[in-house]
Amino acid sequence: VQLQASGGGLVQAGGSLRLSCAASGINFRLHDMGWYRQAPGKQRELVADISRGGEKRYVASVKGRFAISRDNVWRTVDLQMNDLRPEDTAVYYCNTNKSGRIFWGRGTLVTVSS
């Protein structure tokens, strides 16, 4: 299983970024997908996930600002991030599980300046 995340970068507060994760090695349409993040000195936390059926969940701090989506043809899961805040600064990771094992992408850094 490989998860390749892209789209991170430096943005000013209030700006937007779109992260994308391309998956291979799984039957993508059958898997739940998630985006996590880890800020310096903090534990990794779930940001948003989307089930194989399309149900979405968000951590409270990003509701109304972030949107997760998936494309089962291209086998990608995207995270549209709007109205970014300095506290959103973190490394963002794509995540899935297969046969009870959790897989992580390499991560992409998002830095939001105030």
How would you concisely characterize the structure shown here?
The protein has 114 residues and is mainly β. Helix content is 0%, strand content 55%. Strands 2, 4, 5, 6, 9, 10 and 11 form a 7-stranded mixed β-sheet that branches. It has a 4-stranded antiparallel β-sheet with strand order 1-3-8-7, with no helix packed on it.
Could you explain the architecture of this structure?
By secondary structure, this protein is mainly β. It contains no helices and 11 strands. Strands 2, 4, 5, 6, 9, 10 and 11 form a 7-stranded mixed β-sheet that branches. It has a 4-stranded antiparallel β-sheet with strand order 1-3-8-7, with no helix packed on it. It is globular and about 40 Å long.
Number of helices: 0
Largest sheet geometry: 7 strands, mixed
Report how far apart the termini are: 37 Å
Rough outline: globular
Structural class: mainly beta
The low-confidence parts are: none
Mean pLDDT: 96
The multimeric state of the shown protein is single chain
Q: Which percent bin holds the helix content?
A: under 10%
The SSE order reads EEEEEEEEEEE
How many E-type strands? Answer: 11
* Strand fraction: over 45%
Rg result: 13 Å
